[in-house]
Amino acid sequence: MDDLIADFLVETNENLGALDEAILKLEQDPGDAQTVSLIFRLMHTIKGTCGFLGLQRLEAVAHAAENVLGKCRDGVLVPTTESITTVLEAIDRIRLILTGLEISQSEPAGDDGQLIAALDAIVAGDPPPATEAELEAMFNAPAEEPVEAVEAAPVAEVTAPVAVEAAPKAAAAAADGDQGGSSVAGQTIRVGVEVLENLMTLVSELVLSRNQLLQLSRSQEDSPFTVPLQRLSHITSDLQEGVMKARMQPIGHAWNKVPRLVRDLARDLSKKIDLVMLGAETELDRQVLELIKDPLTHMVRNSADHGIEDPMTRRAAGKPETGRLTLNAYHEGGHIIIEIADDGRGLPMSKIRAKAISNGICSEAELAQMTDNQIRNLIFHAGFSTAEKVTAVSGRGVGMDVVRTNIERIGGTIDVQSVEGHGSTFSIKIPITLAIVSALIVAAGGERFAIPQISVVELVRAGVDAPIERINRIPVLRLRNRLLPLVRMSKLLGLPDPGEASRESDYIVVTQVGSNTFGIIVDRVFDTEDIVVKPLAPILRHLSVFSGNTILGDGSVIMILDPNGIARAAEVDVGRGSSNAANDTDLGVMNTTSAEKVALLLFRAGSDEPKAVPLTLVSRIEDMPRESIERTSSGEEVLQYRGHLLPLVRMGMDTTSPRQPILVFTDGDRSMGLLVDEIIDIVEDVMNVELGKAQNGTLGSAVVNGKATDVIDTAFWLSQASTDWFTSPVEKAVSKRLLIVEDSAFFRQMLVPVLSAAGYEATAVINPVEALRLRDSGAMFDTIVTDIEMPEMNGFEFAQEVRREGVWKDLPIIALSSLANPEHLARGVHAGFTQHIQKMDRDALMDAIARSFLPADEAIYEGVAA
Questions:
Q1: Alpha-carbon distance 439 to 334, whole Å?
Q2: Half-sphere CA count of 605, side-chain side, radius 13 A
């Protein structure tokens, strides 16, 4: 709620500034209906939002002012100097309350009865009530001239100058309060990208200097600079994290124009296209975001024109008439992957070959030596197009070469996969440029390299107990009943071979590519270090095994390895890394492990006696700084882990060690961390548990590695983190899709998380026009929640349009409004609303949404009285 209050203060202060300007404009031109409508919407937004947050005093003042403005908007009341002055006084009062709200995080006490009465009197058309000063003056008038005194100073005329004087006083008081409130209003500022870029460059140089100083400090024993350098290191880390966050924006900002683009393309090309956008919350650098907008536009247009067929062709091919175009973004191996996929006709290989020969790109002999993937990538050559005719959309042979040029300019790569008749997928990989990441420093063939730590799953030491084997000439390692394909780094890069003698104890860096893993064999492992990633020079960008370079603390320049590129260069089938050894018949391997033996992780937690858990249940073993563990307001321990909050359950009691071992359990999209005291070992043994000694958190005891060992009840500890961990997807309520139509950005940002936390899949748009575009593009929802007061098209008009035609015409529509009088309820019934809810009543809204999913004979239209 603290964050919501801060956002509310920022938005409301901005709205109040706009209100001042608009009201003064209205005073000069009382007949300006557009200005009146704007003023009403701004006050309506303030009133609705503060009501939703439970700010009753603010809501009462804003509601009274909104009533006046509503009468002006409806033409019932003509704005006068007196009424405008009173509304301005209400605005000043709101400012005063906001100042107190910021200071104490709660509304300050105060009596607004007289101001509200004055506003209500304007609505009723009555003379405004007299102030205390006016009443006192009336009672103290000379007795012999009562009638003349009243006639000389009638209440209506006396009040106006008093109100005019009161407004400046309130404004001055608000201005004094703004000294405290300006901090909130000024929390959000616009900063040029070049300023952030320069700041990032300076931070990068600071990190390099920090690394060099730390390197010097490590080489000297009992150095007096050790402690100050550690403090400098912490400050530098905090600074670099802050700058990185300031530069990041969701990729959805680059996608906001795609729905309109696809809709217009579908209409112009007489096609039906369903757009699906996934991963819009994936963040990337602001500058990179701007550079990929044009490439994305080019590829979306090409997919719509070249890829997806017209409805008649799709019917003939046995496909649905509506084609699907999917945008997907996600993080992988320290990179951002953006995919543009369609289920259309795919790339025509025969046409690509013929066009390559006719354009002189390559000969028939050269084509014969190319793989299908190399042939598909010929479409990125300048002037290459397989379109049979030039259209307004594409076919001129420009676009895909521009796409590749722009992506390579930021150190990225683009690839295409396609199956004729089934569609194409374009994959853009954007490496981290001018970023600071933690990396593992390794050596191979006498050279040092860096591997981004985000790509490293674990380190394994090969030896007598875990030898490297060869199956069909493929080096593999048996790792916990799985076969891990391996790549020897020195051989891949053509570096000097260390010789057979040193291979008895190879280091294997287990890396992750997508959901699969493989191992990189290196000669030596050093330490982790924060590195500044520099993009590759253009002359080296064809080397896919590298993603960039960096400078170490000792001044050495080394290359940064790209696990994705290594897997492709070595032609590693990474899918084997995640398959069970018992099923690897294609490798000619049978499972040699006894069915009675299992891999067990031994650890200590809460006592000196060892405990065990089947290793196959543990997804990762982490060793984190204890200070990285945080507590929520309700007291639960959590860890910021891989972009999410990981719930933690404490099993161990050791709180003195600076490091915290954590066992991470993962099932689908659910994860939890078990805090233990010490990791002992990983062994294979028969687990014969005596269940008779089971207790909470323990299944019983077994003899493991020659010692009596408690085998923990994993289900018990998982349920401590999430009570519904073992609830199957079938048992869970199906996620309902809600469309929120609301012109207030703050209200949208506040409402969507509330609905998401309640289990709904909420999509919010800024106005009915955007909502109708979603309808026309084929997007489907279960319930629509819409505001009433909106520009361009109000909620009543929107509901009527929805009911008129289209795939949404039978959906429940819930109206949100601060007005719930009989006239509005009747108008809502006529427009097609199923429920009418006060905007500030959160409980009523959640109940209305739940009721909207009832059968039609149980769902009735109802309005909640104000």
A1: 10
A2: 25
